[in-house]
């Protein structure tokens, strides 16, 4: 079974600075999908970024980018120029490539952006 | 486009009562999921469905039942609610390529 580990329960960053959130996973599959979801106080789950394991290039979405290290099974999220609206809980998630694969989440990390 | 809609958004139950949570999606997605979110535990999969008429157990299925009679709806039932089922429940549906869309969540309290 796949597992997703987010070992940092909380992080804090100053507005306009850069922060990196860590995530590791365990799988025996060669092809799979990785995601970062954001959950603000509104409780809504919002997809931030996704990475397909067969793509070597790290995914980027505006201020959000990932460092995908397939051999190390590591998938960290970098947030540049942090904004107050980035304050939220962030979840790392994994899904295998099989049609019926489940989406497995880490325990999440609470990020606070300080003004 | 409503996406994924959960009803109700809040509910308080007494121990032993039953209820059904409804999830409806209008994106013609095959795959649907029910998760529960508890502090420090992340999202844990309760049950899921890979298509109309199919259901399967997830990580924490005990005390819950589900049905997928129509493709757009996925129902989660609690037959006899227990305080341990106090949680926030999320429904999600996804495309074939794996991006999941979530409902707004249901906060359930069992007293």
Share in helix of chain A: under 10%
Structural class of chain A: mainly beta
Spans of chain A of at least 5 consecutive residues whose pLDDT stays below 50 are: none
Average pLDDT reading of chain A: 94
Major interchain interface with per-chain residue totals: A-B, 22 and 24 residues
Largest sheet of chain B: 7 strands, mixed
Q: Provide the residue-averaged pLDDT of chain B.
A: 94
State the separation between the terminal residues of chain B, measured CA to CA.
36 Å
How does the major sheet of chain A shape up?
6 strands, mixed
The N- and C-terminal alpha carbons of chain A lie at a distance of 41 Å
SSE string of chain B, helix = H, strand = E?
Answer: EEEEEEEEEEE
One letter per element, helices H and strands E, the order of chain A comes to EEEEEEEEEEEE
Number of helices of chain B: 0
Number of helices of chain A: 0
Q: Mind explaining what this structure looks like?
A:
The complex is a heterodimer of chains A (115) and B (111). Helix content of chain A is 0%, strand content 53%. In chain A, the strands form three sheets. In chain A, strands 2, 5, 6, 10, 11 and 12 form a six-stranded mixed beta sheet that branches. Chain B has 111 residues and is an all-beta fold. The termini of chain B are far apart. Chains A and B meet through strand 10 and strand 11 of A and strand 4, strand 5 and strand 9 of B.
Task: Describe the structure using short key phrases.
heterodimer, A: 115 residues, mainly beta, 6-stranded mixed sheet, 4-stranded antiparallel sheet, 53% strand, globular, B: 111 residues, 7-stranded mixed sheet, 0% helix, 52% strand
């Amino acid at each position: 079974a796949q597992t997703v580990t987010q070992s940092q329960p909380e992080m804090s960053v100053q507005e306009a600075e850069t922060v990196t959130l860590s995530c590791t996973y365990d799988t025996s599959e060669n092809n799979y999908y990785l995601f970062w979801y954001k959950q603000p106080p509104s409780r809504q789950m919002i997809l931030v970024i996704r990475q397909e394991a067969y793509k070597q290039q790290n995914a980027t979405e505006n201020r959000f980018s990932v460092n995908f290290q397939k051999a190390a099974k590591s998938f960290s999220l970098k947030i540049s120029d942090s904004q107050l609206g980035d304050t939220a809980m962030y979840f790392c998630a994994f899904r295998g490539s099989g049609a019926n694969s489940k989406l497995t989440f880490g325990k999440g990390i609470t990020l606070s952006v300080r003004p | 486009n409503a996406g994924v809609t959960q009803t109700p958004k809040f509910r308080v139950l007494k121990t032993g009562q039953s209820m059904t949570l409804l999830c409806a999606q209008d994106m013609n997605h095959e795959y649907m999921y029910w998760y529960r979110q508890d502090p420090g535990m992340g999202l844990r999969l309760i049950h899921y469905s890979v298509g109309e008429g199919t259901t399967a157990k997830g990580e924490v299925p005990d005390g819950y039942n589900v049905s997928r009679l129509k493709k757009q709806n996925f129902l989660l039932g609690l037959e006899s609610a227990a305080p341990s089922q106090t949680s926030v429940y999320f429904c999600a549906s996804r495309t074939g390529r794996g991006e999941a869309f979530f409902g707004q969540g249901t906060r359930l309290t069992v007293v």
